[in-house]
Design goal:
By secondary structure, the chain is α/β, with parallel strands linked by helices. It has eleven helices and twelve strands. Helix 1 crosses helix 9, helix 6 runs parallel beside helix 8 and helix 10 packs across helix 11.
Length: about 350
């Protein structure tokens, strides 16, 4: 129930009365495949923070250390946050900021079944390998679809793909790609270079912010999968190999006063006609969590469409559009076209 969950819950409330034909920033459609934003109902929630466990969902999303922008006031939901399983989900530095809730771990699979939950969204912290696997087992046992918003590789791994197929359940993943964030901006510039015939020679992307995601990533050992995910999302668009030392993509530091804002610096060196050099520098500033909330609303509705249609396993098209590390990488234009076709049922 961190910043990303806060932005998601706020967003569903904020756009609950949006007109069918309204253009909402960050959503593919207000009504996607027959499901309006307001059709999303929150049925269960899990956390380990004493400030959040036992609270109504609406209270938990504004509890410290959450620090994202509040663009909607969410009334009480009737959903109580349950005690989740910690495992490796609590990093060293975040552990200095929160107190773990007392009491036993909730029976997550039972709660998901009893609440008739269709789709589970994972917003676990970066580096939560064991916790992610544990929650995926609960999802499979409960018979839910799954949206994996973090860089622990589930939808992109054949073993997990097969597990979801065997249970007749769909999965979208891995690692959410924001509406216009560092990764999508970098990918777009890389594609621009490639399509205009500029040879990309060197590039970096440095990100820093003040939320618990960046605090977690001060532990470099928790950063491995995140760095792989962000790097592959960019290098998949190169069109030709580049020496590994010439590419750096990843978080840089934690700046507390930025709160949930993220600042991104992108630098690119290329070679143009006549071997003439070209340099490009971009700075992007965003509120990190709302930047992905609309994408998750679309992903949740795509999972529901898959459940309705009896589709199982990884959803390649939506994953390629919504995620940094999907099972199959396409250009962003092709990914959007394939996702639009999926929504139509084509």
């Amino acid at each position: 129930m961190g910043n990303c969950a806060s932005a998601l819950v706020q967003g569903v409330h904020f756009y609950r009365h949006a007109a069918e034909g309204e253009v909402v920033p960050g959503l593919m459609h207000v009504n996607l495949g027959g499901y309006h934003v307001s059709d999303i109902e929150f049925s269960a929630a899990f956390d380990i923070d004493a400030n959040k466990v036992g609270q109504d969902l609406a209270a938990a999303i504004v509890a410290a250390p959450n620090n994202t922008i509040q663009f909607a006031t969410v009334p009480a939901t009737g959903v109580t946050v349950q005690r989740g399983n910690t495992l490796d989900g609590l990093g060293k530095y975040v552990g200095e900021r929160i107190t773990e809730a007392a009491g036993p771990v909730a029976d997550v699979a039972r709660i998901l079944r009893e609440t008739r939950t269709d789709v589970v969204v994972s917003y676990l912290p970066v580096g939560s390998e064991l916790a992610t696997q544990w929650y995926v087992e609960q999802v499979l046992a409960a018979g839910c679809g799954f949206v994996n918003c973090i860089p622990v590789f589930i939808a992109s791994q054949p073993g997990w793909q097969q597990r979801f197929r065997e249970r007749g359940l769909p999965v979208i993943g891995d690692d959410i790609k924001s509406q216009v964030g560092a990764t999508i901006t970098h990918r777009t510039l890389v594609n621009l270079f490639r399509e205009r015939g500029v040879r990309l020679d060197k590039t970096y992307q440095l990100n820093f912010g003040g939320n618990t995601d960046f605090l977690n990533m001060l532990e470099r050992e928790r950063l491995a999968s995140k760095k792989i995910s962000k790097t592959n999302a960019v290098t998949s668009q190169f069109g030709a190999p580049m020496p590994a030392d010439n590419v750096h993509v990843g978080p840089s530091d934690y700046v507390p006063w930025l709160q949930d804002r993220k600042w991104c610096h992108i630098y690119m060196e290329g070679t143009t006609f006549g071997n003439v050099p070209l340099k490009c520098e971009v700075k992007l500033e965003v509120w990190d969590s709302p930047n992905s909330a609309g994408v998750v609303i679309d992903a949740v509705r795509c999972i529901k469409l898959a459940l309705d249609r009896g589709l199982a396993g990884q959803l390649d098209a939506p994953s390629s559009y919504f995620m940094k590390s999907p099972p199959v990488q396409y250009t962003d234009h092709e990914a959007r076209e394939r996702t639009a076709a999926f929504i139509r049922g084509a």
